């Protein structure tokens, strides 16, 4: 792995809340509330957390599929969020996304050939014809599909095959960075392993960097080099995967790891049960957002936002009592 190709600084995405007949703004849903990290070439950064913590919004805002509220994203030293239209079109070739739902992310009126080839024609890399068909065949074959699948429609495929079509669509432009937004969450376990192995093999062959978004810690541990843990729009811990699993520093990370099932009925699991419900991102708690559910919370946690600091070895934690 080389130097960082993606640098995210203080990224925020707030969705306005309107009420009343005159649609007056009364607040914001703070889906992403100040995220900062770097991603190296050929690296996979796993992003985990409970549903609604802002993982998917982070990925889409990085790609400028959603307009950010604040912050900066640099890809190979290019400003993504302020890039003009022509420059953004060039960046689209290098930055792609695999969507979470393989059922709704594919156009039901288009064949596999049209789905995979659409971007190639749009970016003027190929014209319709034999050469384009040969390249599409090469891409879908590498993703585990067959040549005779080219003229079929999405409804004719299983969930795993549809996700492979989504991966083929993302790979067609030969990108160097892909946001994988829960690409296996809707699939059976046996199909999950096939798709994960495909993504791993493609990374080894092409040096692709992944931002791998998931709520399955087992999958994230297998595919990631580093893991970031999100809670209510913020990163609370970021570390190399073995350091995170062997020595979690944040109470929220400890609770998540304790929920991983162990395939041994004789071994006792010390579950850490979090009290209360997740606060609303429209009205987050003061100080540390996790203090309302934390078993170690003190007065300082209610009043002061913890610094996201390096405890050594690039193990970053946002907790007053992490040491």
UniProtKB/TrEMBL annotation:
Residues 6-257 form the ABC transporter domain. It comes from the Bacteria. InterPro entries: AAA+_ATPase (IPR003593), ABC_transp_ATP-bind (IPR050319), ABC_transporter-like_ATP-bd (IPR003439), ABC_transporter-like_CS (IPR017871), Oligopep_ABC_C (IPR013563), P-loop_NTPase (IPR027417). GO terms for biological process: peptide transport; transmembrane transport. The keyword ATP-binding applies. Keywords: ATP-binding, Nucleotide-binding, Transport. It holds the Pfam family oligo_HPY. CDD domains: ABC_NikE_OppD_transporters. One of its GO terms (molecular function) is ATP binding. Belongs to the ABC transporter superfamily. NCBIfam families: oligo_HPY, PRK11308.1. This is Dipeptide ABC transporter ATP-binding protein. It comes from Anaerosalibacter massiliensis.
